[in-house]
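fyi for ur records
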Amino acid sequence: MAEATTDPREHGHAVRAVATRQSASGNRNAVKSLVASTTGQLFEWYEWTAYAVFAPFIAAAMFNNDNPVSALLATFAVFAVGFLMRPLGGIVFGRIADVRGRKHVLIVTMLMMAGASLLIGILPTYDSIGVLASVLLLLARMIQGFAHGGESATAYSYVAEIAPPHRRGMWGSLVFVAIMGGTVIAYGIGGGITALLSETAVGDWGWRIPFLLGALFALFVLYLRRSMEESEVFDTAETVEMQGGGEVVPEVVTTFSRGRMVRAVGLVVAMVSGITVAHYTWSSYASTFAITQRDMDAGAAFWMIFGSQLIALCTLPLWGLLSDRIGRRPVIFIFAVGTIVTTPFLMGMISDQAWTLFVASLIAMTLVAAAGSILSSFMSEAFPTKMRSAGIGFAYSLSVAVFGGSAPYLNAQFIQWDLSWLISAYIIFLCVCTIVATAVMKETHGSDLHKVGDN
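which gave:
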């Protein structure tokens, strides 16, 4: 009886067909994981920005109103304290993400953010329980800041790792789409609430609505994140480590010395400084400045920020694609130089007319979008896999805490000192730091994340 034979060409076709199906399945899973990760970022930044949007109303509800300026400064101080918890969260959760995986951290941090958002939404006021209201608000923001530091670092790493190498800039830009998208939603809800409710109603209970909605939104995000897959880059590094019996550390770690790690962290801190101070000045303080210093209608101010940021975020994937073609550094330079040139004029043009805030914030946030679009790819390409989340977590969170989280408070303080010109001077100085750090960092677009640290 003759043996059955297989045509080698048929076997080759079958292998290619299986590989194609596996590749398509992998792409679909990567896209689903991308959606789950960025949707979580959308929620986190929506809730984070909602605090800044409703800062005047929170100040009235949670602090002593004998001195309204002092109450507003206290609210922004709590805002800054939340940011100061971010480096700690970045270190702790970044390390956990580098050891146990990205998915685990993205679920835990979401639970923490949801709980803190719910707490803010149901807090008794200062008139009800006195200073305890202020203390509980501070505690909630500290929990959020701790979780936020780990979430941001892990999301930046995760999206860069699951992205196709030649489209890492574009995929990474979606992380900042979520960041700006959360801001847009917060301002949209802020505008809707102030339009539908009286100022008294907003101050009494309306300001709680965004935080209660955020807690509900978190349940949907948790459902999405349950089906996320671990990044292939992390799994590969983990496999190499396991094959060494837990005694041999992957080469990408051993070749990345302590000195190079410190240098990379320092450069990322400096590079992010100008980006984050510009971002938080225009996303978290500009509307408050227009309302409190230029007597702009609160509802109009919220809608102007909403509209300008909605347009700016649409440019993010385009900036990311541009970085995939010409490199990361040129795009950072576009942001920094553009911000240095335009900032003094943009801050000066804001008046009680709503369109002035719209134009100023549109220009500023479009420039911020250029730099923000490549943060995920640029930072991930600066650290090896087994140090990536911890490195980003500390460097990014520290820079955002020191320069971004303090921006609304410093800006308000500059105004109180009658030194409003320092707002622009501070932004310009940090953008110069961004230029210097970026010039020192090497171009990384197209690099293999498996081999970061080998050269």
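The chain has 21 helices and no strands. thats all i got for now
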